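Class, study these two lines:
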Amino acid sequence: MVRFAFVVTVSFLTAIFAQADLQERSYPGFKLWVDCSERLTKIAYYELTKDTGNAKRPSGYKRDKAAEVSCTQLSSKPYQGSITTQFPNDKSKKYDVGHIVNANHMDSSEEAIKASMYMVNMFPQVSEFNRQKGAWYYTELLSECLRDLTDLKIYAGTIIGSDSSDDYFVESHGVRTPDWAWKAIYRIDTNSVQAYLMPNRLGVLGVNVGDYVVSFDTLLGSLEEDESRAILEPLRAANNDMNLWIVEGKNKLTCGGEPSSIE
């Protein structure tokens, strides 16, 4: 019953949003579709094969100088600095520069992992949701494990939503804080997809990630743009697996009953 209410709310809010024109941008290893009016990537796509790369993650974040100025965030500084300025005595508000395309998934080449550090691939993400115990991290770890068992196609993105109370970074970065982040992981070996629709807030943890597994149709209905839905449309023919895909371990991972590893 709770999940039903959650789905109806998201779908209703999506229906009232204006449509946006998305700019497609290609980078080594991945694609992004950017809503330039929001300076925010709404959908990303990349493929994962067996992990053989070990390129080092660069330090710091960069603005993509090749992108249109209107499509890039105003700053490459961590979001937390703006929070500290606005709320110097409030330690409860913690935000990361959250990757949409995971940097470690792009370690096949220096060019790809460097591109993953562009601000166009980032959004203001609640730290607890992003870091090791978070649900977003769980999906990244799961993908890292599954890629050693089968080739994957990964779609991920953001939904801005209607809650303006957490839009702390409009002045500093020119970007509103997405209310939701989502992901769809497609396994080629089983022709199956698992979709996740996750609130960008405290308490969205890996131990509860099963609460955020949704049907593929629910994910499509929650997106804000027809273009995003069209990009995901090829997955409609896949088997929609609603049983949570489990990953266990830390450096030595187990997923789908098979061992894997993480670098």
Summary: The chain has a mean pLDDT of 90. The CA atoms of residues 106 and 146 lie 15 Å apart.
